[in-house]
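SUBJECT: protein chain
CONTENTS: sequence, structure tokens:
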Amino acid sequence: MSKDRQTVLDRQLLTGIAWTAVLRWSAQIISWIATAVAARLLVPGDYGIMSMAMLAVGLVRMVDDLGLDAVLVQDRSIVGESQARLAGLTILVGAVAFVCIVLLAQPVAAFFNEPEVAAAVSVLGTLTLIEALQVIPRAALQRALDYRRLAWAQFIQVVATQCVLVTGAYFGWRYWALVSSTLAGAAAVTLLLIAWHPYSVRWPRNMFQLAKPLLQGWRILASRVAWYAYSSADQTIVGRVLGKDALGAYSFATTFSTTISQEISSVVIRVVPGVFSSVQDRRDELRRYFLILTELLAYLTLPVSFGLVVTADLVVQIVLGPQWDAVTVPLQLLCIYAAFLSSQVLNVHLLLWTGQFRANMWLNILAAMTLPTAFYVGAQWGLEGVAWSWVIAFPLVNVPSMVIAFRTIRIGVWAWLDALWPALAACLAMSGAVLALRAVLPGALPLPATAVLGVATGGLVYTAVLWWFFRRRVSAILDFARAIRSRVPERSPGDAASG
């Protein structure tokens, strides 16, 4: 890659992260406030019913795009008539998926022994058709590296969702507040994407001419179904074995443990498809971006996970109230899992955006064959047992994925660990400082004051350790961003292409 081209891509990466960070975090603040309000107006059973319904709907949603959204980003030769026929196929499949969900509504309700789930499943089934309409315009914006519009789309979806959620909760809609808010957000972002990128739709004929993208799409689809099978197996087992109240508590534990770190990761991950696919044939550049972004993600996500481990009881009491005490221990355990998840989240993107769809498929199938068993065994010890299953089994299952990803860019495990080490060392020091502080604080101190002191102390210790012991490493990441801004004109060719 030429120096100028690399500089332009670097700038697009940085600009994408900036746009995504500003709008996504603004949206997340709105989401947290709305969630806290709704949690005090709704009850665990309402969230349990919504979780049961989404478990069924989410599985069918895996097929509403046939995995073609990823293929359209990775394979940039699909344009014109071929793209139009693929658009027709995704819409047709989305409509069929909706019918299937309606037919499955009663059996799903019978499985969970909750009659109210049936109506929620039927209504939420419209998501398959709504989201099928997003496939082409969303892939086009990712191809064009138009992260500004993608970030705005996410922001508007969250705002629409949370406004309807709070309104419905206030007026006593119970779980229908959750159902209607999900549909409102999906509909809003779909209309926006189509307005930004109108596209042609053709009847899906002569599909044998698109055998290659369809084969790759099938592999993506199989990967997603397998991923959904193991990622939702814990909630399915909790709902079936422990009941809707336990599922409501567990849903909040999973949300709190992963939301912040995933929101931070998503700021970076949303720009990864365009960047990784652009350099997929230049492994030296791919390795460079992988290690830089891994280290950046570690600095941003690990302190959140470690901080929640040592303050989970305070967070639950302050945000949710005493009726949610069952969330605390599972939350602490799932935060440990979340730390590992964010540390290796780029591995799967190495496989996807270098076209290794087959390997990714089999790795997800392996996880789907092993993790549900671990969750079922863990459920015999309650919510804590299920959370421990994530902590122990998930890293073991991901070893093959890490091996393939590291071979792809020709690095060893020590290079990956070296990228994580500064943030990990600072987090360990931070956690020890917060625990020591809480041990000496008076028990009569109000919970919010204890939380503020803990966060302030943890932040200071984390920053101090990075500055005193890893100043050169942190400065290198900052210099990377400064160099991009200083070398590139205000408007690059990539910006013009993205509109």
